[in-house]
UniProtKB/TrEMBL annotation:
Family: Belongs to the thioredoxin family.
Active site location: C30, C33
Organism in which the protein naturally occurs: Ferrithrix thermotolerans DSM 19514
Superkingdom, taxonomy of origin: Bacteria
Name assigned to this protein: Thioredoxin
Domain Thioredoxin intervals: 1-105
SS bond list: C30-C33
Record-annotated site: Deprotonates C-terminal active site Cys: D24
A matching Pfam family: Thioredoxin
GO cellular component labels: cytosol
Annotated site residues (Contributes to redox potential value) in this chain: G31, P32
PROSITE patterns in the cross-refs: THIOREDOXIN_1 (PS00194), THIOREDOXIN_2 (PS51352)
Length: 123
């Protein structure tokens, strides 16, 4: 599956409608973003069960601001509608492949339990 352009209009639906979503916040003028783009695209082709979305921070400034993007590229990973990973910087292909495998192996029952506990503690 090729990467998907994410916008303020389709972002929430994309996160809510898919089990795993990798999001690359990038800009055309950003050298590291351009270096990471082929790695991200290749991973999207090898992992057709995962959605790989790209947010152009120049075009989608409100979306980038909503997520507090301070440096690009920034990679975020959502699993079952929960943000489970967020890190600025371009990743080399082997590291990105390892991250994809780790995301697949996350015990989401445990994550949901911890989120519920945190929410209960705040109320």
């Amino acid at each position: 599956m090729a990467t998907v352009a994410l916008t303020a209009e389709n972002f929430e639906d994309t996160i809510n409608s898919n089990d795993i979503v990798f999001v690359d916040f990038w800009a055309a003028w950003c050298g590291p973003c351009r270096m990471f783009a082929p790695v991200f695209e290749a991973a999207s082709e090898k992992n057709s069960d995962i959605v790989f979305g790209k947010v152009d921070t120049e075009d989608q400034q409100e979306l980038a601001s909503a997520f507090g993007i301070m440096s690009i590229p920034t990679l975020m990973v959502f699993r079952e509608k929960i943000l489970i990973f967020s890190q600025p910087g371009a990743l080399p292909a082997p590291t990105f492949d390892q991250l994809i495998q780790q995301v697949r192996e996350v015990d989401m029952e445990e994550v949901h339990r911890k989120v519920a506990e945190a929410q209960a503690a705040q109320s």
